[in-house]
From TrEMBL, chain A:
GO terms for cellular component: Cdc73/Paf1 complex. TPR repeats lie at residues 134-167, 203-236, 311-344, 349-382, 383-416, 719-752. The lineage of its organism: Eukaryota, Viridiplantae, Streptophyta, Embryophyta, Tracheophyta. Residues 980-998, 1008-1020, 1030-1039, 1082-1097 have a biased composition (Acidic residues). SMART domains: TPR. Gene3D superfamilies: Tetratricopeptide repeat domain. Residues 893-914, 928-1097 are annotated as: Disordered. Residues 1064-1073 have a biased composition (Polar residues). PANTHER family: RNA POLYMERASE-ASSOCIATED PROTEIN CTR9, RNA POLYMERASE-ASSOCIATED PROTEIN CTR9 HOMOLOG. It comes from the Eukaryota. Keywords: Repeat, TPR repeat. This is Uncharacterized protein.
TrEMBL record, chain B:
It holds the Pfam family WD40. One of its GO terms (cellular component) is Cdc73/Paf1 complex. GO terms for biological process: negative regulation of flower development; positive regulation of wax biosynthetic process; post-transcriptional gene silencing. Keywords: Repeat, WD repeat. WD repeats lie at residues 10-55, 56-97, 154-195, 196-238, 239-280, 281-321. Gene3D superfamilies: YVTN repeat-like/Quinoprotein amine dehydrogenase. It comes from Eutrema salsugineum (Saltwater cress). It comes from the Eukaryota. This is Uncharacterized protein. InterPro entries: SKI8, WD40/YVTN_repeat-like_dom_sf, WD40_PAC1, WD40_repeat_CS, WD40_repeat_dom_sf, WD40_rpt.
Length: 1097, 321
């Protein structure tokens, strides 16, 4: 036999001889039975068995390896080699280690278990031979480690190390255990010791050191360790992957490239390393090679059992599908990834984020929220997550929470334009000012960053400015949003499209656009600009650039014939110009597009109402209500108003019907209020009903609140509530406040052009007995609305009333009486004109009735003339008397002066006398002295005061007492009206008339009262009685007929105003554009906006 | 072209000023401004200081319209009591008192040669023509009434004539009514030529272009000023910008501009080439009822003047150049 030193061989001693059989290890037979036969036949020592089996293993001939070892551990062997302990144990341990490995690598659960059981059996058998054998314990420890029973594994290794502290395998095992428990520095110590004890140990030990150092953050030392591993074993995949990961994490392009090279190298050496596969997949994901991603990750999944690695693989796979738009699959894999981390976001958070995104796309909002929330547990300051949650909570209606998150996102990253946009969108409905700030911030950020500002943002900014009545800024933003287009020609003066003669009338004529195209203009309207263009048109309408607005609406319709709102705006425009047929035609065009469009139906109903088509209007309102399943407040409100008008319109009031209608109206208003408790129009409506029922204080509170709430938005113009408040003040007798409120309303909302409110004002002045103000107010009303003869009638009535009341005064000046005569003359003239005009049927007053007024006033005038003469006579007499008195006074004065003078003289003389007397007396005394004889004069009485200083007195001016009595009576009669209706609804008639502001009726009534009670003079008696008798009937039947219908509709509540509010047609406000995710929700918002706006005008 | 405020008289009248017109210059004096008010007076003012020349009384119920004869010698004022008072401008002597019951009196204008005074007759649905020599009613131009008025039709939409305007050559007369229609008459033949459409709300003021007798401007409560071809019956254009009723419209003597007064308290100047408002005067604080350009002529007054009067009781004068 030749010895070939190059080849390793073993020699099997031949039994009972000196010979040996040489077995060349490189040339082991394919069939292990051959060699087994020899081993058995020659009863070869067991270590030879082991050597040969190991050799088979090295050569990858696992089956042969197993065959030999199983044979070598059979019961025959046990018997035969009973005294050979160590070798038997070694064989068993080898098998145990083999099955441990199989169990560890097996992915199928059942097989895995079986392998572990086999491994356990072999180790147990080995232990039975010698329970102190350290290698067995080490093996057991490894097995337990593989099974994940860390604590038991620790025990096993500790037993070994207790006896032999330098047992390298046990040290490595222990290190492994500590690593698994996350105690990296302990693990590192153990690896180091193993290396000290056995410096030549395999590269894997250094790998352990590297990984520990990596985990401990000692990156440079880790890198050294991995490099050393590769020096020792250039094909060590783990080291390559580890270094690759570290390179990739360096996060620069050089590192990336190097990292990917290492990963590729590892992949080439060993294509089944899951970590390498994952990282490669990750790379290809970013380069967009999805096919490779899937291939790699699927392989990784197939070869790995390691939870985090698998999670990573699933995550890669999910991301790939996610980016391809296959959300179902992506969601599934994200969930798988999450499952692999045992639902612990701290371990690997990305799949939660991905899943959240996918669920958002799939509309599983709640799931999405909970996943994003888990992300926040790990990264509470992650802006993307905060924003996503902000949007989600918005959609779920939890605005507060949404706001909280969005605000936090903008605070964390004040340069994140998207976050500000999100915040702005959230605030639009609650705080327009803050929303505007947020959008502006976003715009600034994007401009700074050189980004193009999205049209939606500019549109929203424009719309918010619009709402705040900052029309200039609104215009700027809309223009910026729209960019170039035909609309720009309206804003520079170079081209003048105004010459094109656009009007609503020709809305069907597309010729103008064709002509524009022919002349080289582009009439394109990109779809994403339609909303902004519409808003621009709305703004121009607000700025009263009606032609331009009309052009834009028509342009929109030319390009997008289904754009209902444009039709409705055109219709509203036609209606504003009182072209009802055209408005109706336009609404019908809109209804052709969508015959259930509630806005179009509501507008149609409004138009029909204006056309006095009551029945039709009601049907249309009902249709509008049905079209929205009774959820559209506007439709319900319209119906409510309809009922209210219906209650008020009937000339011959039917109390029962009226009550029914009122009740129905109240019910409908209340319904709206339950749906939207801040609906001002419903609140206003409820207030009206309360006022109708006489609950003025509650009504007043309600109106005041509505008035406050309605201030501040351009889309919320509610003159009605001002009028209603004024009506309540009026009804409560607070005339001064009522006057103020009517005047403010006129000025604030109507440029003083509403003659109806002037009529209310006149009525208030009348009640307050301010005849001149009343007259002036009526004259203004006539001047504004010359064709309304009610005002003329009322004017006549006021002058009649004012002159008769002057005549009843006990004392009046001639001037007053003269004025009264003029007043009466004017009254006669006004009534005569009305009388003459009644033949032409230009107004509906009854000729006879007017004639009565003419006669009465003529009579009044005659009386007044008499009075005037009397007064003038009296005046003359007065003047004469005054003259006499004046003369007398003058004479008296002269007399007094003369007297004074006389007295003065007298005094003077007296003094002289005195002096003389004294002198004489002195002389006398002298004389007496001489003669001794005395003589005295009587003393003089002295008057110090002139008795007649005060004279006769001027004619004292007597204060004329105002007709206090009459005033009280008027009041009481008014009070009576109100009391009546408070007492019982049945007599509401009276009450309503009062509230109607139906001036003439009441004037007449009061006049009648007054006349009956205080006849002016005897001559007038008959006529007055006639008028008095006639009046009551006339009031109810004739007088009101023409004039009052309109007013009645208006009634206290200015139902007309309500009319106005409803008239005001779908007036969709600037709509707010919405990001696609918010689309659905935003539609709702839009509708609500639209509601308000519609009502607003 | 532009307007520049010259002078404003606050409380020019004791109450709302409703009417204004210029009385052309005569040999003895320059043109005067004539205003009428709710305070029942008519006042004469001398430009440019707006010195009050005289206050005429005698009207009742508010003066709603004033008109001046092209000679500058006589003028007319009317009030809501439907009397028209014709008087000598310089002496205030009453020349005639006109009434045509039951017709009311609204807008008035003398024919450019001065032979006829046209008066808008309100509910009589007609324009009354008065001979200025005899002061007799010589003609009534009626506008067509709707054939079958709807019973539900209340007060405001009936035919009711509010405003009148003569074409510069005196051949045509236009009148505006409450329902927004404008009728154009051939005066010589007393014949209605046609109705101009475009407004559906009251037309309170009309004026022909002084340079093109075909062109008629109308101001309406719908806030628009429409430009019509009065012969061709077509709407040439529509100008918007006022935020409330357009109460008065007047054309500049050069024909290049028009001025409007509105309930929105502003006076606006419109460039007819651009068909756009080029200037807005906001000096009034209530409805501007009338605007009037001063007619050319007179000694040494070449400068353009515009006057405006308002509910705020004031009268304002502007330089127009």
């Amino acid at each position: 036999m030749n010895l070939t030193p190059a080849m390793a061989s073993v020699y099997i001693p031949v039994q009972n001889s000196e010979e040996e059989v040489r077995v060349v290890l490189d040339q082991l037979p394919r069939d292990a039975s051959d060699i087994l036969d020899i081993l058995k036949a020659e009863q070869a020592p067991l270590d030879l068995w082991l050597i040969i089996a190991r050799e088979y293993f090295k050569q990858g001939k696992i089956e042969q390896f197993r065959q030999i070892l199983e044979e070598g551990s059979s019961s025959d062997i046990d018997e035969y080699y009973a005294d050979v302990k160590y070798e038997r144990i070694a064989i068993l341990n080898a098998l145990g280690a083999y099955y441990s490995y199989l169990g560890k690598t097996e992915t199928k659960h059942k097989e895995k278990e079986e392998y572990f059981i086999l491994a356990t059996q072999y180790y147990n058998k080995a232990s039975r031979i010698d329970m102190h054998e350290p290698t067995t314990w080490v093996g057991k420890g490894q097995l337990l480690l593989a099974k994940g029973e860390i604590d038991n594994a620790l025990q096993a290794f500790t037993i070994v190390l207790g006896n032999a502290p330098d047992n390298v395998p046990a040290l490595l095992g222990q290190a492994s255990v500590e690593f698994s428990r996350g105690r990296f520095s302990e693990s590192l110590q153990l690896y180091k010791r193993a290396l000290q004890v056995y410096p030549g140990c395999p590269a894997a030990v250094r790998l352990g050191i590297g990984v520990c150092r990596y985990k401990l953050g000692q990156l440079d030392k880790a890198r050294q360790a991995f490099d050393r591993v590769l020096q020792l074993d250039p094909d060590n995949v783990e080291a390559l992957v580890a270094l690759g990961i570290m390179d990739l994490q360096a996060n620069d392009s050089v590192g990336m490239r190097k990292g990917m090279e290492r990963m590729q190298q590892a992949f080439e050496i060993y294509p089944y390393c899951a970590a390498a596969l994952n990282y490669l997949a990750n790379h290809f994901f970013f380069t967009g090679q999805h096919f490779l991603v899937e291939q790699l990750t699927e392989t990784a999944l197939a070869v790995s059992t390691h939870g985090p690695t698998k999670s990573h693989s699933f995550y890669n796979l999910a991301r790939s599908y996610h980016s391809k738009g296959d959300y179902e699959k992506a969601g599934m894999y994200y969930m798988a990834a999450i499952k692999e981390t045992n639902n612990n976001p701290q371990e690997f958070v990305f799949p939660y984020f991905g899943l959240g995104q996918v669920q958002l796309k799939l509309g599983e909002l709640k799931g999405s929220v909970s996943n994003f929330e888990r992300v926040l547990e790990v990264y509470p300051d992650n802006c993307e997550t905060l924003k996503a949650l902000g949007h989600l909570y918005t959609q779920l209606g939890k605005t507060d929470k949404a706001l909280e998150y969005m605000r936090k996102a903008t605070k964390l990253d004040p340069r994140d334009a998207q976050a500000f946009i999100g915040l702005g969108e959230l605030l639009i409905s609650s705080d327009t000012g803050a929303a505007l700030d947020a959008f502006k911030m976003a715009r600034t950020l994007m401009k700074k960053g050189g980004q193009e500002v999205p049209i939606e943002v500019l549109n929203d900014i424009g719309a918010l400015h619009f709402e705040k009545e900052d029309f200039e800024s609104a215009l700027d933003n809309f223009q910026e949003a729209l960019g170039d287009g035909i609309w720009m020609s309206f804003f520079d003066d170079k081209e003048n499209l105004k010459q094109t003669g656009v009007s609503v009338l020709g809305y069907k004529d597309a010729g103008i656009f064709h002509r524009l195209i022919e002349s080289g203009h582009s009439v394109d309207v990109p779809w994403n600009k339609v909303t902004t263009l519409f808003n621009l048109a709305r703004l121009l309408e607000q700025l009263h650039k009606t032609e331009t607005a009309t052009f834009l609406y028509r342009l929109i319709l030319f390009k997008y014939p289904g754009y209902i709102d444009a039709y409705l705006r055109l219709a509203a425009s036609a209606k504003a110009q009182n072209n009802l047929p055209l408005a109706i035609e336009l609404v019908n065009e809109a209804l052709k597009v969508d015959d259930k469009n509630p806005n179009a139906l509501s507008l149609l109903g409004e138009l029909e109402l204006k056309n006095d088509d009551w029945v039709k209007a009601k049907e249309t309102f009902r249709a509008a209500n049905d079209a929205t399943d009774g959820k559209d407040s506007y439709a319900i409100l319209s119906l409510g108003n309809w009922n209210y008008f219906a209650a008020m319109r009937n000339e011959k009031r039917n109390p029962k019907l009226e009550a029914t209608h009122l009740e129905k109206a109240k019910e409908l208003y209340t319904k709206v209020l339950t749906q939207h408790n801040s609906n001002l129009y419903a609140a206003n409506g409820s207030g009206i009903i309360l006022a109708e029922k006489g609950q003025f204080d509650i009504a007043k509170d309600l109106f005041t609140q509505v008035q406050e709430a309605a201030s501040g938005s351009v889309f919320l113009q509610m003159p009605d509530v001002w009028v209603n408040l004024a009506h309540v003040y009026f009804a409560q007798g607070n005339f001064a406040l009522a006057v103020k409120m009517y005047q403010n309303c006129l000025r604030k909302f109507f440029y003083n052009t509403d003659s109806q409110i002037l009529l209310y004002l006149a009525r208030t002045h009348y009640e307050a007995e301010h005849w001149q103000e009343c007259k002036k107010t009526l004259l203004r009303a006539i001047h504004l609305t010359p064709s309304n003869y009610t005002f003329r009638f009322d004017l006549g009535a006021v002058m009649q009333k004012s002159s008769s009341s002057t005549l009843q005064k006990k004392k009046r000046t001639a001037d007053e009486v003269r004025q009264t005569v003029t007043e009466a003359e004017n009254a006669v003239r006004v009534f005569s004109q009305l009388s003459a005009a009644s033949d032409l049927h230009v107004h509906g007053f009854d000729g006879k009735k007017i004639q009565t007024h003419v006669q009465y006033c003529t009579h009044l005038l005659e009386g007044a003339k008499v009075h005037r003469e009397a007064a003038e006579r009296e005046e003359l007499q007065n003047r004469q008397r005054l003259e006499v008195a004046r003369q007398a006074a003058l004479a008296e004065e002269a007399r007094r002066k003369a007297e004074e003078h006389r007295k003065h003289q007298l005094e003077k003389r007296k003094q002289e006398d005195e002096l003389r007397r004294l002198k004489q007396e002195e002389e006398k005394i002298q004389r007496i002295k001489e003669q001794w004889k005395s003589n005295t004069h009587g003393s003089h009485k002295r008057k110090d005061r002139a008795e007649d200083e005060e004279g006769d007195g001027r004619p004292s001016e007597r204060k004329r007492k105002k007709g206090g009595k009459r005033k009280r009576k008027d009041k009481s009669s008014r009070a009576r009206h109100y009391e009546d209706d408070e007492e019982e609804v049945g007599t509401m008639d009276d009450h309503n008339e009062v509230e109607d502001g139906d001036a003439n009726t009441n004037y007449n009534r009061e006049e009648e009262n007054q006349e009956a009670e205080e006849p002016v003079d005897d001559d007038a008696h008959d006529l007055l009685a006639a008028a008095g008798l006639e009046d009551p009937d006339a009031d109810d039947d004739e007088v009101q007929v023409p004039a009052s219908v309109a007013r009645r509709r208006r009634a206290l509540s200015s139902s007309d105003e309500e009319g106005k509010m409803m008239e005001s047609q779908p007036n969709p406000s600037p709509q707010k554009e919405n990001s696609p995710e918010r689309q659905e929700e935003s539609n709702v918002e839009e509708e609500e906006d639209a509601d308000l706006d519609e009502e607003a005008n | 072209m532009k307007l520049a405020g010259l002078k404003s008289i606050e409380n020019a009248h004791e109450d709302s000023v409703w009417a204004a017109t210029w009385v052309p210059a005569t040999e003895d004096r320059p043109a005067l401004l004539l205003t009428g008010s709710l305070d029942e007076t008519v006042k004469l003012w001398r430009a440019d200081e707006l010195d009050l020349v005289r206050t005429n009384t005698g009207h009742s119920l508010g003066v709603a319209a004033v008109a001046a004869h092209p000679s500058g010698i006589i003028a007319a004022s009317s009030s809501l009591d439907s009397f028209v008072r014709v008087f000598d401008v310089d002496t205030n002597a009453t020349i005639a008192v006109l009434e045509a019951p039951p017709s009311e009196v609204w807008g008035m204008q003398f024919e450019p040669k001065g032979t006829i005074l046209a008066v808008a007759g309100g509910s009589s649905a007609s324009v009354k023509l008065w001979d200025t020599a005899s002061w007799r009613l010589v003609s009534t131009l009626s506008i067509p009434r709707p054939e079958a008025p709807k019973p539900s039709d209340k007060t405001s939409s009936k035919k009711f004539v509010l405003s009148v305007a003569w074409s510069p050559n005196g051949k045509r007369l236009a009148c505006g009514s409450m329902d927004g229609t404008i009728c154009v008459f051939d005066v010589e033949r007393s014949k209605l030529l046609h109705q101009l459409e475009g407004h559906n709300m009251p037309v309170r003021s009309l004026v022909f272009s002084p340079v093109d007798p075909r062109i008629l401007f109308s101001g309406s409560d719908d806030g628009h000023v429409n430009m019509h071809d009065a012969e061709g019956k077509t709407l040439l254009g529509s100008m918007s910008g006022h935020t409330s009723w357009v109460l008065s419209v007047d054309a500049s003597p050069d024909g290049g501009a028009i001025a409007t007064g509105s309930s929105d308290r502003t006076v606006r100047l419109w460039d007819l080439k651009m068909r756009a408002a080029i200037q807005t005067m906001s000096n009034h604080n209530d409805q501007v009822w009338s605007v009037a350009f001063r007619p050319p002529g007179g000694t040494g007054v070449r400068a353009g003047r515009l006057a405006s009067v308002s509910d705020d009781k004031s009268v304002s004068l502007y330089d127009y150049s």
